[in-house]
Amino acid sequence: MINLLHNITQTAMKAGRRPGVIKYKKYTGYSAARHYRDLLTQAKHEIKNSILIVFGILSAGFGLEGFLIPNSFIDGGVTGISLLFSKITNLPLSLFLIIINIPFVIVGYYQIGKQFAFKSAAAIVGLSVCVIFVHYPVITSDKLLISVFGGFFLGAGIGLAIRGGGVLDGTEILSLYLSKKIGLSIGDIILIINILIFSVAAYLLGIESALYSVLIYLSASKTVDFLVDGIDEYIGVTIISNRTESMRLMIINKLNKGVTIYSGSRGYGKTGDVNRNIEIIYTVVTRMEVSRLNAEIERIDPDAFVVMNTIKDLKGGMVRHKLFKH
Questions:
Q1: To 10 degrees, the CA torsion angle through 293, 296, 298, 302?
Q2: Which string of DSSP letters, residue by residue, matches 19-36?
Q3: How far from the centroid of its chain's Cα atoms is residue 170's Cα?
Q4: pLDDT in tens, 63-93
Q5: pTM of the prediction?
Q6: What would the 3-class secondary structure string for 178-204 be?
Q7: In the chain, what are the domains?
Q8: From its phi and psi, is residue 77 left (phi > 0), alpha (psi between -120 and 50) or beta?
Q9: 3-class secondary structure, 114
Q10: Is 169 in contact with 77 (CB distance < 8 Å)?
């Protein structure tokens, strides 16, 4: 205890303070206002995510109860496995939705984070409760309509849940985990899993039901892509040109886009090894604007070096009408 007090005294004296006097950081009005603003922003974000997950649950429940379950059709992923087990055992679908997803939520807890795992667990339990207590009318018995719209509403539910920070189906979590272990891409793993599921469905439910289930999966996956990635596909464009200023003005004035200028050094070109400083332009356009951008680049500098990459998500700035704030 004496040594502890001695260390405290020495530390205070080195800091130019009198022993026994402790200075506390003042909690200013600015910091309090900023803290309140951060809490308000986080609360709005979580409320928005919760609303998306709730609507996702209702949409997926409608796809299951209104289309798939009454007509003995299945989807891919954990939902498809749950539908198969429910069909075979005559046990409630909600039971299998929870049990089969449990290991995937645990994997998500360690691979992605506890907040994601909590939201996913809440979404899955919510879907199970929805299947039990919310009764939707059977919309149609036409198999093609079931495949298209059943997949659409199920995919919309999954997509909305993903936008809310969780999942309704643990297949994506499993594919993410396996991709790190065996070296395959996430898409390849999901495809392999669904091939196995539809093969079993063909054996148990018949070839025709399995083929319609493939249509349901395709409809659902496209709907998920639409909700997660959006209707516009964004393209990041890197331009290396000797006419940087003309390119910059063209992008700003004609395409009404923002630009970022990087400082770089040319390492090798058409004339061989060249070591000189250059300016590199980076901008973002939509897929529909790529053709016009290429035409303008060709007009200004036919020898420009252009690299384009697909962007999965975009935040901040304005792609269409306002400038990016890089």
A1: -110
A2: TT--------HHHHHHHH
A3: 14
A4: 999 999 888 888 888 999 999 999 889 899 9
A5: 0.70
A6: HHHHHCCCHHHHHHHHHHHHHHHHHHH
A7: 44-229 (no CATH), 234-311 (3.30.70.120)
A8: left
A9: helix
A10: yes
